[in-house]
Amino acid sequence: MRYLPSRPAATFGVLVVATTVFALLQAMVIPVLPEIRRALHTDARSVTWVVSGYLLSAAIATPVLGRLGDAVGKKPMLVTALAMLAAGSLGAAVAPGIGTMTAARVLQGAGGAVMPLAFGIVRDEFPAERVPSAIGVLAAISGIGASAGLVLAGPIVDALGYRWLFLLPMLMIAVTAVAAVFVVRASAGRAEPISWAPAPFLAGALATFVLATTEASRWGWASGRTLGLYAVSAVLAAGWLRLESRARHPLIDLKMMRIPAMLSGNAVSFLLGFAMFAVYAFVPQLLQAPSSTGYGVGATVTESGLLMLPLASAVFVGGLVTARLVRRNGSRRVVVSSSVVIAGCLAVVAWGYAATWQLVTTLGVYGVALGVALASLATLVVVSAPPSQSAVAGAVNLNARNIGGSVGTAVMATVVTARLDASGAPVGSGYTAGFVLLAVAMALATALAVAIPRPAAQPAGA
């Protein structure tokens, strides 16, 4: 195909829609798992694979497809990822049973490379002065989409049924994929070889780690299955590091990953994901808990989603202002400051609110800081990588955040449900301890963010 002239505005529109729909698909399923369980006549244990299968697939596919984007072209891999998302969404919408639903969600997870490929396309196609703000908006969309997914899930299910949680995104993705074919410019450059021998070790290490983490709250953190999977993951990771370090054309360049900004940025992203996904999973549960628990609001799924709306809006605001904040203060100060605010808001959720409006206001402040943190970290990592590896760098950063999210959600579930009342609901002290833990994680993220190189040491545009 002939190279099309660069059309940043149209290209950015396609990327915004693609990343928004992907983010929505991540979150909309979570609050309606009980509805899916009833509709597919399955049990609570099996329905969790609707989420776990997605996470496992995304953990494996995201870095691989990101690397392929750098090697053979970001445009064809973006279209491929969108096609997998659309096919997985259609499969989930028509799934007659939990097995088909899980398989469809695995296919959706394989489309998780949409986000890092979008970052790479921005790096390739946009003027240098626009790269930070464009990446910032796309990164913030991941947080907005997750929040909006929680808001929209209830009304969609109430009006149309849960299958439309997949049909509506499928239609949007299909249109976006066609638009990408005609709007996004094909990347210049020739395909390069990739050493594939380390790939099975990386896939196995990620899969066993995510599986052990997502199931640990059910199996027990000290159970033989959990510890055994962690041991297998460690062995496979060691094998991957050994092979990758010797590969002539590595899947993930370990030298690139040792760049100080990459190391610090990915570590902070892991902890940010640890807190962010736990908030998305457990604040709706907190709101939906009966008022008789002493902490719940007794909201419906739809009402709890509406109470999360200020959070979704605030994340977008944070993403919009990030580029200006980074230009004035540098990435290091911005990430440190936003991490401090997030930690403070989580502490308030744990201890300091007495009414629903105070909780919602705190979540709004949290959302602004979250949008700033997501945008500044994504920009930092992508512009710190060589241009030829921008997509895989973004993929590794996204994976760090998602894996952090799986760990945070699992740990939060263990802490919150450690003690139950007579009705089987968690006691209030469980939520307090859980949100204190999240605040501590973000305090640690603040300390790690201090290690991010100062602006003068970063590549231009950071």
TrEMBL record:
Gene3D superfamilies (alphabetical): MFS general substrate transporter like domains, Multidrug resistance protein D
Localization per record: Cell membrane
Listed GO CC annotations: plasma membrane
GO function term, MF aspect, one: transmembrane transporter activity
TM ranges: 12-34, 46-65, 77-98, 104-122, 134-156, 162-184, 196-214, 226-243, 263-283, 295-322, 334-353, 365-386, 398-418, 430-452
Keywords assigned by UniProt, alphabetized: Membrane, Transmembrane, Transmembrane helix, Transport
Protein name: MFS transporter
Organism: Dactylosporangium sucinum
